[in-house]
Design a protein that fits this description.
This protein has about 250 residues and is an alpha/beta fold. The protein folds into 2 domains: about 30-110, no CATH class; about 120-245, Rossmann fold (3-Layer(aba) Sandwich), CATH 3.40.50.1970. The protein has helices at about 5-15, 20-25, 45-50, 60-75, 85-95, 130-145, 160-165, 165-170, 185-190, 215-220, 235-245, and strands at about 35, 40, 55, 80, 100, 105-110, 120-125, 150, 175-180, 200, 230. The strands form 3 sheets. It has a 5-stranded parallel beta sheet. Strands 3-4-6-5 form a 4-stranded mixed beta sheet, with helices on both faces. It has a two-stranded antiparallel ribbon with strand order 1-2. α10 (about 215-220) links the parallel β10 and β11 (about 230). α6 runs parallel beside α11. The radius of gyration is 20 Å and the shape is globular. This is Phosphoribosylaminoimidazole carboxylase-related protein. One of its GO terms (biological process) is 'de novo' IMP biosynthetic process. It holds the Pfam family AIRC. One of its GO terms (molecular function) is hydrolase activity.
Length: about 250
C-alpha cells in the first residue's frame, strides 16, 4: 500500500463509503504478511515510496511465486531482479502479462500504471556492451520506481569521442548512472563534464587484474571528479534506488 492508496482508504472510511470493519480487514496485513519462508513487507511503500522488490537469486521458483502473489494481492506492482530464465518461466506461465528481460535478468508485473515522480530523466550509461546486463537492471528498476529513463551503451573511454557526441543528452539528465568494468574510468570522465549527480556502478567485467570488479570499484571510489558516488559491484538495482530518491519530486 502506498500513501495515495492509504489516503483514499481513510477518506472512504470517513465518508462512510467503506465500513470501519472493512477498513480494519484491509489494513490487517499492512505491516507484513507471513507466506511461509518469507515475510512480505507491505508497509514498505508507505515508508519508502516503493513496494518491496524480490531478489530472485538464491530463491526457488516456488518461493518467488508465493512472494509475488502476496505483493499482487496487496495491489502492488512486482519487480524481480537477478532472475534466471528457468525460474522466470513459471511466473510468466502464472501471469501472462509478466515481462521478462533475459539480458537484465528482471521480471516485471504491472497491475497499475507507474506514476512518474522524477524531476527529470535518469540517464543510464554503460561503458561497453558487456556491461549491458547491469545497466539494463538499473534501467528497469528506475522505470518501475517512477522515472523517465534514457540509455546510452558502449561509450567507454577507449573511444571517448563516442561519449562526447552525446554531451547535450548528458547535460540534460537529472541524475546519471554510469556503469563500467575494466578500470572503471567512465564515471570520472562523466563527473568532470556535468553538474548532475553521478552514481557509479562497477561491474565484474574485465581480465584477471580487474579482480572481479574490485579494480573498477577502487578506481571509482578514488575518483577525483566531484559529485561521483559509488554502489557495490554489479548493483544496478541499488544505483536505480539511489537515483530515484535523488530525482524524486517534492510532494505538494
Amino acid at each position: 500500500m502506498n500513501p495515495s492508496e492509504l489516503h483514499k482508504l481513510l477518506s472512504a472510511i470517513r465518508s462512510g463509503q467503506v465500513s470501519v470493519e472493512e477498513g480494519l480487514s484491509r489494513l490487517a496485513t499492512l505491516p507484513f504478511e507471513d507466506v511461509g519462508e518469507a515475510l512480505i513487507d507491505h508497509h514498505r511503500g508507505l515508508r519508502q515510496g516503493a513496494p518491496e522488490v524480490i531478489f530472485g537469486q538464491g530463491k526457488t521458483s516456488e518461493q518467488i511465486l508465493r512472494i509475488a502473489e502476496g505483493l499482487l494481492n496487496g495491489n502492488n506492482n512486482v519487480l524481480v531482479t537477478r532472475l534466471d530464465a528457468d525460474k522466470a518461466a513459471p511466473l510468466v506461465e502464472r501471469w501472462p502479462e509478466a515481462a521478462y528481460d533475459p539480458l537484465g535478468r528482471t521480471l516485471t508485473i504491472v497491475r497499475h500504471a507507474v506514476a512518474t515522480t522524477g524531476r527529470g530523466p535518469i540517464l543510464v550509461i554503460c561503458a561497453g556492451t558487456s556491461d549491458l546486463p547491469v545497466a539494463r537492471e538499473a534501467s528497469t528498476a528506475a522505470r518501475m520506481l517512477g522515472n523517465r529513463v534514457e540509455e546510452l551503451a558502449d561509450v567507454g573511454v577507449a573511444g571517448l569521442h563516442r561519449l562526447l557526441a552525446h554531451l547535450d543528452q548528458l547535460r540534460r539528465a537529472s541524475v546519471i548512472i554510469a556503469v563500467a568494468g575494466m578500470e572503471g574510468a567512465l564515471p570520472s570522465v562523466i563527473g568532470g563534464l556535468v553538474a548532475a549527480p553521478v552514481i557509479a556502478v562497477p561491474t565484474s567485467v574485465g581480465y584477471g587484474a580487474s579482480l572481479g570488479g574490485v579494480a573498477a570499484l577502487l578506481g571509482m571510489l578514488n575518483s577525483c571528479a566531484s559529485g561521483v558516488t559509488v554502489v557495490n559491484i554489479d548493483n544496478g538495482f541499488g544505483a536505480a534506488c539511489a537515483a530515484a530518491r535523488i530525482n524524486r519530486q517534492e510532494q505538494p
